[in-house]
Write a structure and sequence with these properties.
mainly alpha, two-stranded antiparallel ribbon, 3-stranded antiparallel sheet, about 230 residues
């Protein structure tokens, strides 16, 4: 076996210790040290990034989730800080639900990942326009309320719209917003100017684009301006 083949065999065993054979000349006890260190490192990063999800999933199921991720997912980055993004990608693309899994697992995981993603983002606040550190989000489930004491079995009739941003003190903040405010935020984030965006939204929602309408919108935009979310 060549050196490259030995490395591949070693990596395969690390990823799937129950399915892959031991390397020649390596005892099970010695290999178990590497297997445990590898799994515990990956699991620790995932648990730290998704604390609510970790608390809601039974211990055995959590172990299976992490082991399935390790075995099945081909990571695109070597950076530990991006393991959470890789885990989220696996949940969205390769995860297979089991009986008893929370129905909101994908949205809750995304919501938890957003905080870390914004916290470590290298983007900077702009001098004009929508901040790349402000993300309007819409979920089917009320993810910001989910906890050990609140685990809904059915999604509410209305979506949950949130605005998550990193402020000038580099603190990640969360705000629940109306569907209208979410649509406006999404348009501003896409680079639209505020006035044409407001005019089109008024038409879509059957609202009169009168002074009262624009005054209310101005109040909202001024608040976003104060919070460093949007700058005219």
């Amino acid at each position: 076996m060549s050196g490259v083949d030995a490395q591949r065999a070693f990596a395969a065993r690390i990823r799937q210790p129950a399915e892959q054979p031991l390397l020649a000349g390596v005892t099970a006890e010695r290999m178990a040290v590497y297997e445990e260190l590898f799994f515990n490192n990956i699991e620790g990063f995932i648990r730290g990034a998704f604390p609510v999800l970790h608390r809601l999933v039974e211990a055995d199921r959590w172990q299976r989730l992490v082991r399935s991720f390790i075995a099945e997912h081909q990571a695109r980055t070597p950076y530990f800080l991006e393991i959470s993004q890789e885990f989220l990608a696996w949940l969205q693309q390769g995860y297979v639900a089991e009986a008893g899994d929370p129905p909101f697992i994908l949205e809750l995981a995304h919501y938890e990942w957003v905080e870390l993603a914004l916290d470590v983002s290298e983007a900077e606040l702009p001098t004009q326009g929508w901040s790349p550190l402000a993300w309007p989000l819409a979920y089917q489930w009320p993810v910001q309320r989910i906890s050990a004491d609140f685990q809904p079995s059915e999604p509410p009739a209305e979506p949950t719209c949130l605005l998550v941003w990193r402020d000038v003190q580099d603190k990640v903040r969360f705000m629940q917003i109306s569907p209208f405010a979410y649509q406006l935020a999404a348009r501003l984030q896409a680079g639209e100017a505020s006035e044409p965006a407001l005019l089109e939204l008024a038409q879509q929602h059957g609202l009169n684009a009168d002074n009262a309408y624009f005054n209310n919108a101005k109040t909202l935009l001024e608040e976003w301006h104060k919070q460093g979310i949007w700058r005219p």
